[in-house]
Amino acid sequence: MRTPVEPPASAWSFGDPTDYDPLDDLVAIGADLEPGTLLAAYRRGLFPMPSGTPGDPAYWFCPVRRGVLPLDGLVVSRSLRRALRDFEIRVDTAFDEVVAGCADPTRESGWIDHDIRRAYRRLHELGWAHSVEAWQDGRLVGGLYGVALGGLFAGESMFHRVRDASKVALVGLVGLLRDEHAGDRVLDVQWQTPHLASLGVVEISRTAYLRRLGRALEVPTPAGFARPGPAGG
């Protein structure tokens, strides 16, 4: 079984999330992307994004309106349900390839830079970051990656090379999270977009998110992330 390794504590403090500006998603600038810093941020409801300018410090966000996907609210269309039969879902068998797919510089609004890729590779090596992959005919055709902390899965990005492949990976992820602790789990997608809304993502307030996060961190990580292999559902 793969047990996550707790890294050294961060040298940085993100303060009390209840004191953040109630009107601004951006709550901090700076710190580093060490594993201990990343985990401390997620445990307080934050996540990093690069500024877009090489050499600039990381930006840390805790959205005023948070996008979450209720595990009983995933919208699976008739066509997507049919498409599920054409894919195999795997977990953590191609983490680097999934992140590379998400970081493809030809994608519109690409934001994943070298520092982000390296930081999440280190989290993956420690057992905290995971990929859920859609395979077809022996080829990786889509997937997503994120961070699993107890009952929190913080989704970072997803990609597809064939139609519906990223959605299939999302269905696989939801299947992993639907266990006896599903009522306390949180599937965080950062912000709601029209595309994510069509899949069932809703917005909740920062206060509600932090309250749910506190409960989520007290439950165990899903068993499906304990070792690489095919996903359960």
Automatic annotation (TrEMBL):
It is an enzyme of class 2 (transferase). It catalyses: N-terminal L-arginyl-[protein] + L-leucyl-tRNA(Leu) = N-terminal L-leucyl-L-arginyl-[protein] + tRNA(Leu) + H(+); N-terminal L-lysyl-[protein] + L-leucyl-tRNA(Leu) = N-terminal L-leucyl-L-lysyl-[protein] + tRNA(Leu) + H(+); L-phenylalanyl-tRNA(Phe) + an N-terminal L-alpha-aminoacyl-[protein] = an N-terminal L-phenylalanyl-L-alpha-aminoacyl-[protein] + tRNA(Phe). GO terms for biological process: protein catabolic process. One of its GO terms (molecular function) is leucyl-tRNA--protein transferase activity. It is found in: Cytoplasm. SUPFAM superfamilies: Acyl-CoA N-acyltransferases (Nat) (SSF55729). One of its GO terms (cellular component) is cytoplasm. Its EC number is 2.3.2.6. Keywords: Acyltransferase, Cytoplasm, Transferase. Signal peptide: none annotated. NCBIfam families: aat. Functions in the N-end rule pathway of protein degradation where it conjugates Leu, Phe and, less efficiently, Met from aminoacyl-tRNAs to the N-termini of proteins containing an N-terminal arginine or lysine. Belongs to the L/F-transferase family. This is Leucyl/phenylalanyl-tRNA--protein transferase. The gene is aat.
